[in-house]
Design goal:
23 helices, 551 residues
Length: 551
């Protein structure tokens, strides 16, 4: 009769990833994009606009507004960014200052995933089967190797790449969800650390704009811990109940109970399914394999604890009609689940992941290099012509530092491929080295070789520069109904006073903006004269009509 535990791991398989290589990989994932760019469109620039307005005293901290319109968002993450902007005034760019704490939170999230996987892998049910004549993996070494795999699985996940490098409330939520996962994972081994983690995580999650997810996670964790076979884990249920109550009260006091449910239509389900496929790749097939291979241990902590948070995130994603930011909160738990597939993978499956990752990311890196070469030298000519057509007016600058970092990253990728295919074939984490390294490589290349182009296409600065030729400095602009991201860009980059309230057209502002899609331009309203039509350099369908009030 076969053992119900599917993990068979030798001492050689439980070797850990060299610490220097792991730290270097984490740095290549977290640091690129930290400097040298503006906040990008939509949520990123909207959140930054609120932070800088708070720091400069242009809006109250308890009831912040953009263009006079109340901001429907969480307060705590914006306070965090505003504090760092104030601390860096006079010597640090506001965008960089606001980005620093969120980069730290991303690094802490990676570290917490490592410790979550480590603590869960130490449980008796998760340990590999003992061999008849010895030679099985040491329990601590096995847990460390599994933790390396969990960290690599999170960095390899495609959905975390862009959203994890923004300055938005969802990154604070991500850290809070991972801290809660750590509290449940460490309950039998780190009693007081686990209790403090739970007591901090759920209120932080609620104060960051996700009180409903905090309550759902608290309820799921309460159920798992109540029926646990370990007395230390059952003892944390009181702290879970207290943390859930505090989260509910804190969400109510901060006005965070804004329900954003949008029941998806049947036509939305294929789109959501496609989102799940790419957003959670490559962790989701490994997590499904974990659930199948460990199906006899579904009630044990190393499976049930991360599964609860994954289900909460999937449910929130469906309830919000496919919100990728809600789905992101389940990625750390999904990575932990994916790690437990590693000791059960067949050699053929591991080889398939390696070959796919090697070809896919090498091809992606070559594409980035070819387009960069075309922009800098004009050869080959076609990529540069395509960029000129899609981003008219862009002039590619040269940076020796960016080129040096990109070359170093590419050489490191070549070394990783040779290292992976030549040695360490027994290590548990071997199947995730190339996916995680490939994601880090492409992000590094994008944030060095392509950063000027991406910043030109996704920053609002070029649009504001065009607008400034028609609107004088320090002017008042009426922009009723305009998007919060555009208001934030106008206030920060243009230093204009913006009134975006519904009745702003009747204010005393001398200029007015209207966002239109119709061609030719409709005539201006009564009392206004047309000045110009301004569009973003990379925008074709939408443009902004500039109007001046008649004397």
């Amino acid at each position: 009769m076969s053992s119900p535990n599917p993990a068979l791991v030798t001492q050689r398989g439980a070797r850990r990833l060299p610490r220097f290589a792991l730290w270097l990989l984490c740095a290549a994932y977290v640091l690129p994009g930290l400097v040298g760019r503006d906040p990008w469109r939509s949520a990123d620039v909207s959140a930054f606009g609120l932070m800088v307005a708070m720091a400069e005293g242009r809006t109250p901290w308890w009831a912040p507004t953009l263009g006079g319109v109340p901001a429907d968002t969480a307060l705590l993450p914006h306070w965090l960014g505003a504090v760092f902007i104030m601390a860096g005034q006079g010597w640090l760019d506001p965008a960089l200052a606001a980005r620093v704490p969120f980069a730290l939170l991303l690094g802490l999230t990676l570290a917490l995933v490592w410790y979550c996987t480590y603590q869960l892998a130490r449980t008796e049910a998760a340990q590999p089967v003992a061999f008849a004549f010895g030679g099985e993996a040491d329990p601590v070494a096995y847990a460390r190797a599994m933790a390396d795999g969990g960290l690599l699985a999170l960095m390899a996940t495609l959905g975390l790449l862009q959203l994890g490098h923004e300055t938005t409330p969802e990154l604070v939520q991500l850290f809070a969800a991972t801290l809660f996962l750590y509290g449940l994972a460490a309950a039998p081994f780190r009693t007081w650390r686990a209790r403090l983690a739970v007591l901090m995580a759920l209120p932080l999650l609620a104060a960051s704009g996700a009180p409903a997810m905090a309550l759902a996670a608290g309820l799921g964790g309460f159920i798992v811990c109540t029926f646990s076979r370990q007395a230390q884990t059952r003892a944390i249920t009181t702290w879970l109940a207290l943390a859930t109550l505090i989260a509910a009260l804190l969400g109510w006091s901060l006005g965070a109970w804004a329900w954003r449910f949008a029941e998806p239509a049947v036509s939305d389900l294929p789109r959501i399914a496609r989102q799940w496929l790419w957003f959670m790749w490559p962790a989701w097939p490994l997590a499904l394999w974990t659930l199948w291979r460990w199906r006899r241990q579904l009630s044990y902590r190393h499976i049930s604890v991360p599964l609860v948070l994954v289900l909460v995130a999937l449910g929130a994603n469906l309830a919000m009609a496919g919100s990728d930011r809600a789905l992101m909160l389940g990625l750390p738990a999904l990575a932990v689940l994916a790690a437990f597939a590693l000791p059960t993978l067949k050699r053929s499956a591991s080889a398939a992941v390696d070959w796919f990752s090697m070809f896919f990311f090498t091809l992606a890196a070559l594409t980035i290099w070819v387009i960069y070469l075309s922009l800098q030298t004009g050869w080959p000519a076609k990529p540069a012509a395509n960029v000129a057509r899609l981003a008219p007016g862009f002039d590619a600058p040269f940076s020796a530092l960016a080129l040096l970092l990109a070359v170093a990253g590419t050489l490191a990728w070549v070394a990783v491929v040779r290292w992976r295919t030549g040695r360490h074939r027994e290590a548990l984490w071997k199947s995730l080295v190339l996916p995680a390294g490939g994601v880090a490589l492409c992000w590094l290349l994008l944030m060095t070789l392509w950063l000027p182009l991406l910043d030109y296409a996704r920053s609002a600065r070029p649009f504001v520069t065009r607008l400034a030729t028609h609107v004088p400095a320090d002017a008042c602009i009426a922009a009723p109904g305009i998007a919060p991201a555009t208001v934030a860009a106008l206030e920060h980059f243009g230093r204009w006073t913006v009134d975006a309230r519904p009745g702003a057209a009747d204010s005393s502002c001398a200029y007015r903006l209207r966002v239109l899609r119709l061609r030719p331009s409709p005539p201006p309203p009564e009392g206004w004269d047309w000045v110009a039509d301004v569009n973003r350099p990379t925008e074709r369908d939408e443009y902004t009509q500039v109007l001046r009030r008649r004397p």
